[in-house]
Design brief:
The protein has 239 residues and is α+β, with helices and mostly antiparallel strands. 31% of the residues lie in helices and 29% in strands. The chain has 7 helices and 12 strands. Strand 5 and strand 6 form a beta hairpin. This is Serine/threonine-protein phosphatase.
């Protein structure tokens, strides 16, 4: 039998007046939604996303179908609000979620945008989601090196998000777990300014999840904290 243990933290950062990130943590469902920076009502969009996710049937036989339905419902609610209030047009959110499938010892992953999910296993860090950004598409096409993408000023320019009036699909897939795995879900307020190598080091620097969360947020703020910072650390325990 596997058990999940988690910690969560969020911070406004050094340059934003409000926190447009929203987070959901339950016994089996973990998610970060990042309201689109520079767009109207980003905090409304992200809070709608996690509110819809809170109603997902975590015991469903087909968790990917449940997550897909949730993303469609989020898009519908955002569109309805935008039709009622012109000022809300253009609002949107990223979403990265892990839904535990205990029977199969795996996570169902739902991802759209540039928040991220990482896995730390055996001291090695792996990004298990793919950014839906212009620069990532250029990396995938061989037009830009990954090192260049990490420092590109337009690295947060999204190609896909949950947005009013849009019909973009999320990436949906299963990820098999192993005992001792440590997962991180974070908004780009962390990953945009803290290098992957440093994130990996901080994830393994302490067994205490709350201490790890604090160190990740401090690292992002130490790099200027240009955006809101939200992190969830989930440990998989068991035999």
């Amino acid at each position: 039998m596997y058990a999940l243990r988690y910690a969560v933290g969020t911070d406004t950062g050094q340059r934003r007046e409000a926190n447009e990130d929203s987070v959901h943590c339950g016994e089996r469902l973990f998610a970060v939604a990042d309201g689109m920076g520079g767009h109207a009502f980003g905090e409304v969009a992200s809070s709608i996303a996690v509110a819809v996710l809170a109603d997902v049937d975590v015991d469903a036989d087909d968790p990917l179908t449940e997550l897909a339905a949730a993303t469609r419902e989020i898009a519908v609610r955002l569109t309805d609000l935008a039709e009622e209030n012109f000022d809300m047009r253009g609002m949107g959110t990223t979403l990265t979620a892990l839904l535990w499938d205990g029977e199969e010892k795996r996570f169902a992953v739902c991802h759209i945008g540039d928040s991220r999910a990482y896995l730390s296993r055996g001291g090695e860090l792996t990004q298990i989601t793919r950014d839906h950004t212009v620069v990532q598409a250029m990396v995938d096409d061989g037009r830009m090196a990954a090192e260049q993408a990490a420092a590109h000023p337009g690295r947060s320019m999204l190609m896909r998000a949950l947005q009013a009036g849009s019909a973009h699909d999320a990436d949906l897939f299963f990820h098999e777990v192993q005992p001792g795995d440590r997962y991180l879900i974070c908004s780009d307020g962390l990953s945009d300014v803290v290098a992957a190598g440093e994130i990996g080091r901080l994830l393994t620097a302490d067994e205490d999840r709350d201490a790890v969360i604090a160190s990740l947020i401090a690292a992002a703020n130490g790099e200027g904290g240009p955006d809101n910072i939200t992190c969830i650390v989930v440990d998989v325990e068991g035999a």
